[in-house]
């Protein structure tokens, strides 16, 4: 399976600040992953999204930050 640019963990979650003194719990991490997966599926099923292209959506970035703060910080 080909790797999609912009969909890897390093780029997808890069805007979420890491706080080593406050480790995320397993359930919160699972919820974050589920929310971001649903957001990615909505984006990738958009007829105007070109497959294998980098994600350049401010809405996607905002949701990434929102869910990161909600579940991981």
UniProtKB/TrEMBL annotation:
One of its GO terms (cellular component) is TRAPP complex. The keyword Transport applies. Keywords: ER-Golgi transport, Transport. InterPro entries: Longin-like_dom_sf, Sedlin. It is found in: Cytoplasm, Perinuclear region. GO terms for biological process: endoplasmic reticulum to Golgi vesicle-mediated transport. Pfam families: Sedlin_N. It comes from the Eukaryota. Belongs to the TRAPP small subunits family. Sedlin subfamily. This is Uncharacterized protein. The lineage of its organism: Eukaryota, Metazoa, Ecdysozoa, Nematoda, Chromadorea.
